[in-house]
Amino acid sequence: ADETAGQPAKIYLLIFKRPAGQLDVPGVKSKISRAYRLGDTERKPLKISRNEGTLSVDLADIEPDPIATVICLERDTD
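RE: above sequence
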C-alpha cells in the first residue's frame, strides 16, 4: 500500500535573503491549499494569494531564520 496516498504533495521554498512583507513566486500553476513555515510545530497557516501566474506568501507574521526560512506549500494532488 502507498503510505502517501491521500496526503497533499509538498513544495518547499528556501529563503536565504528574505523580502520585506511577502514572497512572490512566479510560475506556480498548482492549486496551493496551505502554506506554513517549516519548523512551526503548530503549522500556523500563512496568508497566500494569487495574481495571474504569481503566488504570493505573506511573511509578515513570522520571525526570520538567521540562516534560511523554509516555507512549505501543500498542493492538491487532484
